[in-house]
Amino acid sequence: MAVHVPVLPAHHLDPRLRHHRRGHRRCGRHGHLRPGPGAGGGLSGAVTEPVESAELDVLRRHWHPVARSDAIDDGPVGVVMLGRPLVVFRSGGKACVASDRCPHRGSPLSMGSYDGDCLMCPYHGLRYAADGRCVAFPARPEARLPKRLTLDTLHTRECHGLVWACEGEPAADPPDWGFYDRPDVQTFQIGPARWDVSASRVAENFNDIAHFSTIHRVTFGPSDRPVAPQEVTATDTGFTSNISVFQQYRNTLDGAVEEVEAAYCYDFTFPFSSMLTITYPDGEIECIQMTALPESATSSLVFQQSARTNLGNDPLEPWRDFQDAVNEEDKVICEALQPRQVSFGLDNTGEVALPTDVFSIAYRRLWKSLRS
Fold first, then answer.
1. What is the pLDDT of residues 246-298, one digit of tens each?
2. Considering just the CA atoms, what is the radius of gyration of the chain in Å?
3. What is residue 191's three-state secondary structure?
4. Are 184 and 152 in a shared domain?
5. Does 357 reside within a domain?
6. What's phi and psi for 322, nearest 5 deg?
7. Per the domain annotation, does 1 fall within a domain?
8. Are strands 162-166 and 118-120 parallel, antiparallel or unpaired?
């Protein structure tokens, strides 16, 4: 099968202890599920493998989600990005990301708390500003602080309900998910949730339509029927695709089932961010945005948020529960895939492509061009 997808030139994407104190807001959480060595942060079965160096070079120049905006309002959060422990915090209303290690004695700053506009170390109470500088040492206020007492900070952007981080010089902007910010839609966020599979597997699954009638038969999958031919078009930031899809039309698990033909518009931003806009026959629009933080080669933190028109005063909880059920169906099969990561550097991955694999074929070609 020939997939006519223009290969993007590389320059388009790649221009080279909870602790509480009075007077301080809630302390940091390792609630974004930092994995311990071989333990997956307490989640059984998680195995962390390092990202290949060639892929690491590419990923360090792109934006990755590290936290929901509301997760850092009351205290810092600890995450792992590409094997590196990070702390996500807010200073003066601004989202910040830095190495999760106090230069003094190596304590995790994600276990700390906020003191005014500063991030406070949980061990000796050193205060750090948004730019990473240590600005106070309460035990010796008069002491001159060494310049080396500075955090290694990352490029940080906050938009559309998420905080994004980039280790190197950013190759592009974070995904444009403006639909989520519209005043005429209802929204909710799910997760983040650990998936014990690579972020590339998460991205490929989200953009795959051939599994609906099998994996999602309980939630929204249609009865068995052929999948319409799909075309994938390259953009400056990834791919787009438009296709007509039959699905069950409901947004709750106990809702009435009606099979309808809906218009699906996929907008993928490299490396792992996907937005699906669904237009239903009655004019209702649903926008589902999913992205993944690559913790390691085989572990991802998955973020999802949804926006929908025409819901009126309907409660959000049943809709959120429905989306949770859909995600769990995907998670179970993705974590069972062998291997749990895509080997972009191999000519023969041991997998056999089929006519419905147009996105994954284009995606892997792009990855291969950027690795070389």
1. 877 655 555 556 778 889 999 999 999 999 999 988 888 999 999 999 999 99
2. 22
3. strand
4. no
5. yes
6. -65, -45
7. no
8. unpaired
Strands (E), the chain: 64-68, 77-81, 84-91, 94-99, 113-115, 118-120, 127-128, 134-136, 155-159, 162-166, 186-195, 231-234, 238-248, 259-269, 273-279, 285-296, 299-308
At residue 262, what is the residue type? A
Torsion from C-alpha of 254, 256, 261, 262, nearest 10 degrees: -50
> Given 139, 166, 193, which residue is the final one in a domain?
166
Alpha helices in 17-140 (DSSP H): 53-59
Domain boundary among 133, 166, 199: 166
Query: Reduced to 3 states, what is the DSSP secondary structure of residue 259?
Result: strand
Whether 203 and 123 map to the same domain: the answer is no
Number of structural domains found in the chain: 2
Helix (H) or strand (E) holding 7: none
pTM of the model: 0.85
3-state secondary structure (DSSP) of residue 180: helix
**Bridge partner residues of 266 (DSSP):** 241, 276
In a domain, 8, yes or no: no
CATH number of the domain enclosing 281: 3.90.380.10
Reduced 3-state DSSP string for 126-159: CEECCCCEEEECCCCCCCCCCCCCECCECEEEEE
Instruction: Identify whether the C-beta of residue 257 lies closer than 8 Å to the C-beta of residue 325.
Output: no
Q: Are residues 148 and 213 in the same domain?
A: no
Give the model confidence (pLDDT) of 88-139 as tens digits.
999 999 999 999 999 999 999 999 999 999 999 999 999 999 999 999 999 9
- Say yes or no: 160 and 197 in one domain: no
| Length of the chain counted residue by residue | 372
The stretches of the chain forming alpha helices (DSSP H) are 10-13, 53-59, 199-206, 212-215, 317-335, 358-371
Name the nearest CA neighbour of 368 among 1, 3, 10, 6. Answer: 10
Whether residues 50 and 198 fall in one domain: no
What is the token pair recorded at 325? 């059920």
Give the range of the structural domain holding residue 296, as residue numbers without chain letter.
Answer: 178-371
Residue 211 and residue 119 share a domain: no
